[in-house]
Amino acid sequence: MPKLTKTIIENYTVSKDTTIWDTQVRGFGIRITPTGNKTFLIYWRRDNGAQRKKSIGKYGKITIEQARKIAQSFFYKISMGEEPLQKRNDLSFREYSSMYLDEYSYHHKSPATFMNETYIINNHLLPKFGKKKINDLTRREIEKFLNSFQSHKVLPNRILSLISHMYTKSIEWGYSKLNPTQGIKKKKEEKRSRYLTRNEINRLLEVLNNFTHKNVSQALKLLLFTGSRKGEVLGAKWSEFDFENTEWVKPMHRTKQRKQERIPLNEEALKVLYELKETRTSIFLFPSPSKKGHLLDIKSSWEHIRREAKLADVRIHDLRHTYASILINNGVSLSIVGKLLGHSNASTTERYAHLNNDTLRRATNIIKLNQL
């Protein structure tokens, strides 16, 4: 297509929103809608690869020549490090979501949280609110949207937390003055207290020992023997393990608390690591089948494994619960368990203190009349 001209713009018809790009000024174009709206815009990439767009005027109010000069002026400022800002009250939810993910979530959340937030935004929020201006979204609209997830117990709360935090950042950055989620109550969640008994652990280990895909079975063993999060184990690199001091040094960019953690390795975990070391072929403990990067998920294998072990209601995360429960039932304090799990406060660790019946019985039998 040649450079944008008045003739091209006025004669161009579309059946869906379409952007025509100018060949004279790279990154300058015009967005045309089926209703005939025509808006000039510029497009550029930041140094970190993040994409940015900005509307610079409507066709009819400014000419193609004026718009091209404005675009050139903006691109000059961008090259000098002066990035143009969107009008603070004019950001769409889609534009702001991209900004939130690129500039905040990616840099300050754990990889797993970033992936979860990206999924929720792309699959739930953008289809519903993408075209709305961020400051036009109301509390009532959000409440009705959350109520539409009648069959989900947890998802509405996760969505509410994400929207709330997005607006907290929007207020902090100066794009919004109010948070429309304020006053919306979360739905009550029944906290899971599932952990494996000794017999169930034995059944699981028996299945893992005979499972065809050793990478998957070894990853699950490490989850059980270290109490680590799935993302930490699947993304682990050999360089993180100090075999001389028998420690796993988890880098800050892969931990939920965004701080380095040094976790002592027990004998069971070391056995798994030494077995893996014998066939080491990658910088990762668990390389992907394509040899590019590491395993991202083991959900389908876990479905098969838990059926074989007759553990239908057990999630992968319950292995972390089990690790914590074994320690607590053997007299390890909550503060130490919290450090091993990488918790920042004791109240989080208390969720994992699932004491078994034998422990409770020993506790209540302390009460004896002849010893009072």
Beta-strand proportion? 5-15%
Largest sheet: 4 strands, antiparallel
| Relevant CATH superfamily of the largest domain | Intergrase catalytic core
Average pLDDT figure: 84
The 3D shape can be described as elongated
Tally the helices: what do you get?
15
Strand order of the largest sheet: 1-2-3-4
List the helices and strands and how they pair.
Elements: H1 6-11, E1 18-21, E2 28-32, E3 38-45, E4 51-58, H2 64-79, H3 93-108, H4 111-129, H5 139-147, H6 155-173, H7 198-209, H8 214-226, H9 230-234, E5 241-242, E6 247-250, E7 261-264, H10 267-277, H11 299-308, H12 318-329, H13 334-341, H14 346-349, H15 357-364
Antiparallel strand pairs: 1-2, 2-3, 3-4, 5-6, 6-7
Helix pairs in contact: 3-4, 8-10, 8-12
Any overview of this molecule?
The chain has 372 residues and is α+β, with helices and mostly antiparallel strands. It has three domains: 6-79, 2-Layer Sandwich (Double Stranded RNA Binding Domain), CATH 3.30.160.390; 93-173, DNA polymerase, domain 1; 198-361, Intergrase catalytic core (hpI Integrase, Chain A, Orthogonal Bundle), CATH 1.10.443.10. The chain is built from 15 helices and seven strands. It has helices at residues 6-11, 64-79, 93-108, 111-129, 139-147, 155-173, 198-209, 214-226, 230-234, 267-277, 299-308, 318-329, 334-341, 346-349, 357-364; strands at residues 18-21, 28-32, 38-45, 51-58, 241-242, 247-250, 261-264. A four-stranded antiparallel β-sheet has the order 1-2-3-4. Strands 5-6-7 form a three-stranded antiparallel β-sheet, with no helix packed on it. Strand 1 and strand 2 (28-32) form a beta hairpin. Helix 8 (214-226) runs antiparallel to helix 10 (267-277). The longest helix is centred in the N-terminal third of the chain and has 19 residues, at 111-129. It is elongated.
